[in-house]
UniProtKB/TrEMBL annotation, chain A:
The keyword Cell inner membrane does not apply. It is found in: Cell membrane. Residues 71-277 form the ABC transmembrane type-1 domain. It is a multi-pass membrane protein. GO terms for cellular component: plasma membrane. One of its GO terms (biological process) is transmembrane transport. Belongs to the binding-protein-dependent transport system permease family. CysTW subfamily. It comes from the Bacteria. PROSITE patterns: ABC_TM1. Its main location: membrane. This is ABC transporter permease. SUPFAM superfamilies: MetI-like. InterPro entries: MetI-like, MetI-like_sf.
UniProtKB/TrEMBL annotation, chain B:
GO terms for cellular component: plasma membrane. Coiled coil: none annotated. This is ABC transporter permease. It is a multi-pass membrane protein. It comes from Pacificispira spongiicola. GO terms for biological process: transmembrane transport. Residues 62-250 form the ABC transmembrane type-1 domain. The chain crosses the membrane at residues 6-32, 68-88, 100-124, 130-154, 175-199, 232-254. CDD domains: TM_PBP2. Keywords: Cell membrane, Membrane, Transmembrane, Transmembrane helix, Transport. Pfam families: BPD_transp_1.
Length: 291, 261
């Protein structure tokens, strides 16, 4: 509460912020700084950590083609996911924003629903669809198109399908928010000046919806590139993404210094993407979809 | 233009089918009476829900998730409401930086947050444990609460608070008598949001959970290692009911509350 006495107002916001900022400092800022230091330590064969300034982990992470290939694969999967989400997400966003359909509110509510349904459930649900005893194979066998179930799961394609399924609502929502804010008179004006419907869309609507498209793409790319669950559930042995390497290093091999270095590579890569976005668009657009 | 619009409508239908068909199949198959829980379906039955109820590990995972989600929601919402008040009601130096700091936990990839928290608190003597899980879930859900509560608080006129204070109410009394009732729907929404995110989380949870402790998502994940069983579909259905029905009930309650005033 802003007090009426101005002298109280200097410290009051900091008192209100103190618990949150303390939490962020202790549970985020210092831990990230800690792994930055930790990544220069060494894990010896006996399992003990050697403190100090060793470049070994970084040299391994940055020069070993194994890590470079998986980083490239991760960027490719996240990029493909983002492009598919943008193409497939624009259509329903445009429909909901412009339709006179009377159940529009219901369509919007449905759109929010996936945010409330667990990520692991949505991911594993594809096993029921594409698995060897899933609905598609059951249909193919019933139709006599095939005798044996076709192996459709556990490859790069299904990883991307799973990620698109997970991230599409983020994209649709962001594009919708941006389309919703466009003054319809602008399109009408373009039409009255002789634009075709398609021209009006390309020259007016599409450019004005760019902020939403960009915000949605950022979320899809960053969330897609940081996942390790989807490749574990829907990918094959060669579909590990960068976050899987982090998980293996930390949880399976217990090589914490190496895991720290790998985490930081992911943080820097995605941090750069966020920074570029922030430079051109600003973070406010993303906050808008919470309004 | 007609063909363009029908293309858009068809596309929209296809996207909605893509989003909802797989989840609907999970719900459908959880009522399958067949032994293998796959197609073709043999008949309707509740046997897999009964099997869940009899499975001690799943019941325990459910209790853990509920407890974790509830505590996360309470702590995260308390912190988030206080921070939102500062951000919306005051101007102070460094506000833009603080605003970024408050949403930083969702700007950092969750895997990185998970590793950093695990290793740092481990070095501080906090092992993989329930408190570590709780700390992780609180920090990860805090930005969502802040964003939801801030968005609502902006639209609450500060004149009401100023009127209360000019009539002699202290800041704390003003908060509980005036501000809190006005932002209550957003506070509840923020809390439910935090609960659901915590209840659903698997990315961080797999790093932070001690051996032998499972939440519902990690339990499902562990069961998937074998193969998809009808029990997993039933557990998925229960989870969908918890995370979808709760917010809908919450929204209905909030609407009733705000109508009363």
């Amino acid at each position: 509460m802003a007090s009426l006495d101005p002298a109280d107002n200097t410290w009051q916001p900091w008192r209100l912020l103190a618990p949150s900022l303390t939490a962020i400092l202790l549970l985020l800022a210092i831990p990230v700084a800690f792994i930055a230091v930790y990544s220069f330590w060494l894990r010896t064969a006996t399992g003990a950590d050697v403190a100090g300034f060793h470049l070994d982990n970084w040299i391994e992470v940055l020069t070993d083609p194994f890590y470079r290939d998986i980083l490239g694969y991760t960027v490719w999967v996240a990029f493909a996911t983002t492009v598919i989400c943008a193409l497939a997400g624009y259509i329903p966003a445009y429909f909901i924003a412009t339709t006179q359909f009377k159940h529009k509110a219901f369509l919007l509510l449905l759109l929010m629903l996936p945010f409330w349904i667990s990520y692991i459930i949505r991911t594993m649900s594809w096993i029921n669809i594409l698995g060897s005893s899933g609905i598609v194979n059951a249909a193919l066998i019933w139709l006599g198109i095939t005798d044996e179930p076709i192996q459709m799961l556990y490859n790069q394609g299904t990883v991307i399908v799973g990620l698109v399924h997970f991230l599409l609502p983020f994209m649709i929502l962001n594009i919708y928010v941006s389309l919703y804010g466009i003054d319809r008179n602008l399109v009408d004006a373009a039409r009255s000046l002789g634009c075709t419907g398609w021209q009006a869309f390309r020259e007016v609507t599409l450019p004005l919806s760019m902020p939403g498209l960009a915000a949605g793409s950022l979320l899809c790319f960053v969330l897609g590139a940081g996942t390790y669950i989807t490749p574990l559930v829907l990918g094959g042995p060669t579909d590990a993404m960068f976050a899987n390497l982090v998980f293996d290093a930390i949880i399976t091999q217990l090589n914490w210094p190496l895991g720290s270095a790998l985490s930081l590579v992911l943080l820097i890569l995605l941090g750069l993407v966020v920074a570029v976005y922030n430079r051109f668009a600003g973070m406010n657009q993303i906050a808008k979809s919470f309004g | 233009m007609f063909s363009g619009w029908s293309f858009i409508r068809l596309g929209t239908i296809l996207v909605y089918v893509f989003m909802f068909a797989p989840v609907s199949v999970v719900v459908l198959l959880s009522f399958n009476s067949s032994q293998f829980g796959s197609f073709p379906m043999e008949g309707l039955s509740f046997r897999w829900f009964v099997a869940l109820w009899d499975n001690a590990a799943i019941v325990r995972a459910f209790q853990t998730s509920m407890m974790l989600g509830a505590l996360t929601a309470v702590i995260s919402t308390t912190l988030g409401v206080l921070a939102s008040l500062a951000m919306v009601r005051y101007t102070f130096p460094g506000k833009t930086a603080i605003s970024t700091a408050l949403i930083a936990p969702i700007l950092v990839p969750e895997v990185v947050l998970a590793v950093a928290l695990l290793l740092f608190l481990g070095a501080m003597g906090v092992p993989k444990s329930f408190p570590l899980l709780l700390a992780g879930h609180v920090i990860f859900t805090l930005p969502f609460v802040v964003l939801v509560v801030q968005a609502r608080l902006v639209s609450v006129k500060r004149e009401y608070e100023e009127a209360a204070m000019s009539l002699g109410a202290g800041p704390i009394e003003t908060f509980f008598q005036i501000t809190l009732p006005l932002i209550l729907p957003a506070v509840l929404a923020g809390g439910l949001f935090a609960f659901t995110i915590s209840f659903d989380d698997i990315t961080g949870t797999l790093f932070w959970k001690p051996g032998g402790v499972e939440t519902v998502p990690t339990q499902i994940f562990a069961m998937l290692r074998n193969s998809i069983s009808p029990e997993i579909n039933a557990l998925g259905t229960v989870m969908i009911v918890v995370t979808v029905a709760l917010p809908l009930l919450g929204a209905a309650a909030a609407r009733r509350l705000s109508r009363k005033q």
